[in-house]
Design goal:
InterPro entries: EmrE-like. With 110 residues, this protein is mostly helical. The protein contains 4 helices and no strands.
């Protein structure tokens, strides 16, 4: 699998996961909770992301996939929490995001 295609697929998997996380967070606020349509759509998004994982894992080392995905997810979920859900961002959170970026750089340059 060409790296460009892999990066696009990884971006799609990440977007599906972020969308699912957004919907789950929204469902926790909703009266119906896990019975809400928000939660069910989130589960469907997670299931779709599994198909992308299958193809990524087939062609790449888990280290590359996991670090890149985890770093991107951490950064995007942090932004989602702060911007959309008005969550606080402390110095430890900022340090964690910085370390995630460092891990991505280490894996990408090896």
């Amino acid at each position: 699998m060409v790296l460009t295609n892999s990066l696009v697929l990884l971006a799609v998997v990440t977007a599906l996961t972020i969308g699912g996380d957004y919907l789950i967070k929204s469902a926790t606020i909703h009266v119906a909770g896990m019975g809400s349509g928000l939660f069910l759509v989130a589960v469907a998004l997670y299931a779709l992301s599994a198909f992308g994982w299958f193809f990524l894992i087939r062609h790449h080392p888990l280290t590359w996939i996991a670090v890149t995905y985890s770093g991107a997810t951490l950064i995007l979920l942090t932004l989602l929490g702060v911007i959309v859900f008005d969550e606080d961002l402390g110095w430890r959170d900022i340090a964690a995001v910085a370390m995630a970026l460092g891990a991505i750089l280490l894996v990408e340059t090896s």
